[in-house]
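Quick board copy: two proteins, each given as sequence then tokens.
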Amino acid sequence: MLALIAENGRITWRRHGAGFPGRPNTPRWKYLLLLLLTFTGMPAAIAADNTPISTVRAEPRARRVAAEFFTSVKPIHDIVIRSAATGILEGFHLRPGDHVRSGELLGHLGGTNYTAKLTSARAAAETAIKALALARDQLKVDEARYPLLIDRDILDRGKLKVTRVRNSLIHARETLGALRASGSLTSPVSGTVSRIASSDGERISTGEKILTLQPKGNLWLVGGIFGKDIGRVRVGMQGKFHPAGGGTAIPVRVSRIFPRSDGDGLGIGLEAISRPPGWFSGEGGMVTLGARANKEPAIPDRALVLDSGHWWVLDDAHGHVEPVRVVPGDSRNGWTWISSGLKPGTTVVSSDAYLIFHKTFAKKYSGD
């Protein structure tokens, strides 16, 4: 039998027989007195308290870290197509869910305003072409007359004019090309139309949103984790996505962990391990994650003591009971894994730990 003994202000436990430890044949009235003092609020650290206690060693047990949460398939990012000029949207007949190919013509711009700009740009380019031709002809004449009839300054001015007019033509052609390109609405990537912001025949301004595309194959799973799951999930963990509609589970891997916009819990981004995964945007289902089995010290639930928001165990440190702060992990079948604070093989008090702690140590450690 083990007994809890207080000697010189320290708590110890020893084996004893029928009498008081170290004092054989102690009268029974002393034991009755000890019980009376204990149940009238006297601290457990009274000398000669022989309350029997039991201990257990923290066992290294295998624990499989796991988490399960709901996710939905979403695009990693969308592509917004905007108007590059002002005009009337024509030939635009797409609807959400339509599939488009990269480079496919989706519509074009028309209307008086756009047509007028296009006409003006064409005229500017044609004028620049004629001006360049005249400047080149004049330069040829000047070169033929130099140096007998004209001096070097006149020849240099002719060359400078050709260069200036050529640059004007380049600018006019670039303007005309950009205006023509802005009038043709094409898809930059292959994907699915997710949102329509403009309609056929509508007047749109430069920079105005026309539609949103979800690029092909640019999907992942997004979910949220809360509470204990936050400490269990890490980037690189693998698991499976189980579609809500049934079907084969899809192997996935955690690729991102990020703060949620509402500040509650954490957001989780998962990508399929194999390509293509076969899911579609908007599909939902459960994700189960697991890691390799890790061995951590485990103790009975009854050996844990909660005080002032912290968890403690009573450690038998070389025959003396000492409180040790710990961080509990998962619990299962009456046992709790200790994430930190306790080494495997440590002997801890497993009976009446709560009572012993709060009668003996609570005042000392409650402000810690």
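And the next:
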Amino acid sequence: MKSFPLLNRLSKYTIRQQLYIIYFPIIFLFTLLTGFLLVSESQKKLTESYKELSALNAQRTKSIVFDTTNKVFNGAESFANDAELRKILSTNYSSTLEAEKEISHYNLFNQLTNLDTSIKSLKVYTTNPTISNYQNFVKADSEILQTSWFNKGLQTADVFWLTSASKVNNMKKIYHNLTLYKAIPLPLSNYSAILEIKIDYNFLKNRLSSNNYGIQLQLNDDPLFYSNIEKEVGSQNKFDTPFSENYYQSEQFFGKQLVATNAILLSNKTDKIYIYSIDETSYSALRANLIKWLIILAFSLLTTTLIVILFSNFFSQRIQDLKNAVHHASIEDYDYLIKDNGQDEISDIFLDFHTVINSILTKD
């Protein structure tokens, strides 16, 4: 034992204390450390799983939004290059009836809106004074001419997107729609025309609705134009997510919400739509999982502690009984006998001790 001074020090304590000294720092702490590592790994894997599922939902949303905006973009480009539409917008009509008759023969707008259910409204705003408000054509009055989107359309030939706010039938509720604007070139005319296509909120709701995730959509740094909670539409994004130059994707917790973010660079290569896939249940599920594993760990530690205490008491009591028997023998009290029905080494010592006592009594 000289080569193990720590073991020599243990001999200064009782058997019960030695067992406690060995159990608590070694077995107890090892079990505790192993348990926490398992709990940590379980939480990590489960968190990664929730993040992956939320990211997949964001990717699903991205595909739907990209397909929707791309169809509208292609439709706008086809109208901008349509010779018949250019002719209608460039012609000086002798009367509004003549203009309306010409417009009524143009069916491409109706064909597109019938085929593409994502379109809420399609209008062409024109400065041609001989065209009145009829079907999809709107005369640009002084109020329209002063709007920022109309003036931006006059200054750029490319498509651009905005989040437009509007009221329906003088209702108090304001609707925010993702809207495409495109200037229709009229090179042989002094007039101007801007195409406006609004995407329907209900279409997005039907395509994007999910029982497990909330969805929010934002164009550039505009207010939200879509949210599964309608009262949030028109408000600013509340998630402090960094915007990158071209593209970003991340999954992180904001309070009790797991938010997966994604982005689409639209066909005009200028505007971006940011997607927020919100998981409201993952936080509580992760917390429940953590509590469950901590209860299991605590139960395991409590059970092993009780077992060690019972074993220590049982083992220590047998040693104490043997010690008492030896003590009585040392004072020549040979009537003090202890029975031990075990079959281990301690039982063998009891048996040998009784044999020694019987030999002494026989000699006497």
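Board note added afterward: Strands lie at 119-126, 137-139, 160-167, 174-183, 193-199, 213-219, 224-227, 250-254, 257-265, 272-279.
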